[in-house]
Amino acid sequence: YDLCKIIGERFGEAFAAISDMEFAALRFSTIFGPGKTTRHGRFGALSKLIENPFYGEPVTIPVGGDQVDDMIYAQEAARGVVAALLAPTLPNSIYNIATGRGYTLHDVARAVRQYYPNAEISIGDGLNYLGSSVNYSGILSPERAQHDLGFSANTDLSSAIGKYYEALS
Question: What are the b/e assignments for 53-71, b being 16+ CB within 10 Å?
Fold first, then answer.
């Protein structure tokens, strides 16, 4: 996966170098929003954590509550794409579309309980809630996207979860 992403970026840069086309690769932090649970199975753990209480269902995530990750709401990520498309120039070839802030699943659970105080949520401590052999969690720097594209993810976690619930309604 990682190698394919890097190769795709290099192909884009090479094509831009021999053509009149501008190129920019967008690297996204962890995106969450309605619909991801269905499409991404275990990679939709974050969405399950938000959606299950909405539907009155318990949620159990056995491990990973302490993992810090940069989480961006899908609507904000889409604004980042639009900012890249509408930018007058692209002085760099790689941009992080991210919040630059770190949250844990425990933080998400606290935000969910602001909307559903009686939600049945059980999250184990530890890292790597996806349980994959590679841990893709981390905090990305959005500074280049802020400077070059005028993009800033400005929705805080609780408000993003509120928007998520509005979209589900």
Answer: bbeeeebebebbbebebbb
Specify whether the CB–CB gap between 154 and 37 falls below 8 A.
no
pTM summary value: 0.89
User: In whole angstroms, how far apart are CA 43 and each of 9, 10, 28, 140?
Assistant: 23, 27, 15, 19
**Could you list the residue range(s) of the whole structural domain that residue 151 is in?**
26-168
Q: Which two tokens stand for residue 62?
A: 């056995």
Residue 20 included in any domain = no
- Taking a C-beta distance cutoff of 8 angstroms, is the pair 13, 93 a contact? yes
Q: Which of 49, 157, 141, 134 is nearest to 94 (CA)?
A: 141
134 confidence band (pLDDT: 50, 70, 90): confident
User: What distance, in Å, lies between the first and last C-alpha atoms of the chain?
Assistant: 34
Range in 4-18, 127-141, 150-164 with the lowest mean pLDDT: 127-141
Distances (CA, A) of 167 to 49, 74, 110, 114: 16, 11, 20, 17
Count up the domains in the chain and report the number: 1
| 160 domain residue, yes or no | yes
Query: Is the per-residue pLDDT at 129 higher than 80?
Result: no
Six token digits for residue 35: 């619909």
